Amino acid sequence: MQTTQHVLFERSEMKDRHLVRKKIREHVADKTKLPILIFPEGTCINNTSVMMFKKGSFEVGGTIHPVAIKYDPRFGDAFWNSTKYSMMTYVFKVMTSWAIVCNVWYLPPMVKEEEEDAVHFANRVKTVIAAQGGMSVLPWDGGLKRKKVKESFKEEQQKKYCQIV
């Protein structure tokens, strides 16, 4: 990984976040370096939606080259539900599937607009990717599939529902 200039960090460690942001800014500023591949969702889900993007990737400046990726599950499902299947079961399912078919769309480059903050820029990029892949846009973090939903989030959704009714 050192030869390919990976930037490793612990997401929960605030010092690491600042260091990564600095390293990415330096990388983006150096035009002799190759582009950085970032998966801003921070996780993969079941191929139906695009979840909230982490804003850090969109704070550093530079041009974003969005890529929409959607798996075709007709011959084999590439999605791993780690709460349902062990790693060995998942590997067995992938290795015994007919094929893993994936559609990849390279979308036009996008740049942060002057009045836009990182969150709005991330949401704009996410919307373009979701539209291309025919997926829905979700406003929440991918961590919800691994954590219990906060009570405050549930209450907020209940209030919204009550206002509708």
UniProtKB/TrEMBL annotation:
Principal subcellular localization: endoplasmic reticulum
Name of the protein in its database record: GPAT3 acyltransferase
Stored Pfam families: Acyltransferase
Gene Ontology molecular function terms on file: glycerol-3-phosphate O-acyltransferase activity
Alphabetical GO biological process terms: phospholipid biosynthetic process; triglyceride biosynthetic process
GO cellular component: endoplasmic reticulum membrane
Family classification: Belongs to the 1-acyl-sn-glycerol-3-phosphate acyltransferase family.
SUPFAM superfamilies: Glycerol-3-phosphate (1)-acyltransferase
Pathways per UniProt: Glycerolipid metabolism; triacylglycerol biosynthesis; Phospholipid metabolism; CDP-diacylglycerol biosynthesis; CDP-diacylglycerol from sn-glycerol 3-phosphate: step 1/3; Lipid metabolism
UniProt keyword Membrane present: yes
